[in-house]
Write a structure and sequence with these properties.
The chain is α/β, with parallel strands linked by helices and about 400 residues long. It has 2 domains: about 5-120, no CATH class; about 125-395, 3-Layer(aba) Sandwich (Rossmann fold), CATH 3.40.50. It contains 17 helices and 5 strands. Strands 2-1-3-4-5 form a 5-stranded parallel beta sheet, with helices on both faces. β4 (about 325-330), α15 and β5 form a beta-alpha-beta unit. α14 (about 305-320) packs across α15. It is elongated.
Length: about 400
Amino acid sequence: MDDAALTWLLSVGWTVLIPVGVGVGTARWGGTRTMVALAVIAVVSSLTIPAMPPWSQVVPSVGIAGLAHGLAIVEPPVRWKVLGAIALFLGLSEAGTRGVLPEPSGVYRSGYPPWVSVQARQGDAGDAAIPRAACALAFDDPDPPTGPWVLHLGDSMVRGIDPPGGPGAPFRAAWRAQRPDRAHITRAALGTSADVQLLGLRKALPHRPDAVFWYVFAGNDLAEFGRGWPCCDGASLLVEDTTTARCTTPRWRAPGWWARQRQVADHPWLWVQAAPGSRLAQWAMAAWTAVLHHDDLRDNTPPDTVAHAIAAGVEAAQQAGVPIRVVWMPDGARPPVDHPLRNALDRAGLGDVLIVPPFPTDPTAHAALLTGDGVHFNADGLRTLVDGVRPALDAIVPGP
């Protein structure tokens, strides 16, 4: 059974079968033993099954199971009244949400069939593909062209997610349309931060690119810095609190169960799929995902640590005589005002970070520049990005 089928089976189990089982179990064996059994299943599955999202699927499902438990022990007339009250509440909430809130942009919408795990559907984002791409960026020498070239360094915002033509192809095409006099090489891996990208930059500098543009996206840079990688004995690629490489050559080791869990997305995809047309479900999942992933400060690296790694890369490029600019990637439609990482870059002496100006601040207009996942740029978004960065390249290397 492949990861997509396993993840779907487990998700369906938690979303549908477990709550039903709790209701039946309560009626037959008693509530206490049933809830204890549910807790044991939750702990064992979240700690041992790599494809099981440990908390995003379990926690809401346990809540529904608790409701099923409560309904199973009350008299039928009360049970129907409670269900009717819940249905009325959800209906009114859905109507109110549609009247007040627009459809959220972001990963809370998906066009994939509900029986396919979104993470497994995105081949570039699989548990095996992410480490391979990140380790290749950190350790493999680039294959630069014989003529003049420009290096574009970053994460999935540069690489794309399963883009047509291969990793980075749409990004390079957007640049070729603007500056065909230079080859445009992308060194980017999704789910990576400045630590991996710093090592990739160091590998590229001896090949003397005409210019380097380092695209910084605050989400990955804060959440993924210091992550353990299987090509460095499962440890982070930089020695703690330094910019020194821990491994000068790859040392592959299969990650343990906890590392596998860290590599599984915490987004409750099936819950989005269960009600794809519900505005209330979309916003509930946006809030839930923010709690679990985007704003989980426990897993975030201090911004000054990330900024220190970026500053080390800028210094290395300057010492090599290679012009380099750091590009601040738009984080949704929010302007980079008082962002912790943006302020940390200032403190690290990188006050000349290039802020790409043409992106609209209106959420609806910004969403039109994104792909269906609500995060990565579509063709129009890439053209907008290149339009904003091209003047900086023209200032370094005048165009035709």
